[in-house]
């Protein structure tokens, strides 16, 4: 399950825990636990963007950003080199 979530995050795009849980056929709380575990293990890292509503285009999700004209905090998960190696194995 960890590798499936890691691969999903590596593909990019926008995913909520709810959507990922639905796609994987598991409970949303399990997805959160797995993300926490991937973070703790060093397979992903969290990049927090504060108040991205100004449309700055400063993050890797600028093409799919849906925060126009609203202030919100978003978490962007980046797969680390360690995570990329795990996917490749």
Question: N-to-C terminal Cα separation, in Å?
Answer: 15 Å
Helix content: 40-55%
What's the CATH C level? Mainly Alpha
Provide a count of the helices.
Answer: 4
Notable characteristics:
alpha+beta; 2 strands; 89 residues; 4 helices; two-stranded antiparallel ribbon; single chain; Arc Repressor Mutant, subunit A; 45% helix
Architecture blueprint of SSEs:
Elements: H1 2-11, H2 17-24, H3 28-41, E1 44-49, E2 74-79, H4 81-88
Antiparallel strand pairs: 1-2
Helix pairs in contact: 1-4, 2-3
Description:
There is one protein chain. This protein is of the alpha+beta class and 89 residues long. It has one domain: Arc Repressor Mutant, subunit A (Orthogonal Bundle). Helix content is 45%, strand content 13%. The protein has a two-stranded antiparallel ribbon with strand order 1-2. The two termini are 15 Å apart. The mean pLDDT is 81.
Describe what is shown at a glance:
The protein has 89 residues and is an alpha+beta fold. Helix content is 45%, strand content 13%. The mean pLDDT is 81.
């Amino acid at each position: 399950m960890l590798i499936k979530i890691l691969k999903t995050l590596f593909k990019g795009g926008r995913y909520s825990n709810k959507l990922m849980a639905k796609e994987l056929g598991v409970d949303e709380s399990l997805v959160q636990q797995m993300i926490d575990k991937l973070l703790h293990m060093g397979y992903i890292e969290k990049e927090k963007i504060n108040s991205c509503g100004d449309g700055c285009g400063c993050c890797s999700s600028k093409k799919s950003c849906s925060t126009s004209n609203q202030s919100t905090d978003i978490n962007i998960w980046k797969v680390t080199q360690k995570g990329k190696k795990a996917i490749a194995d």
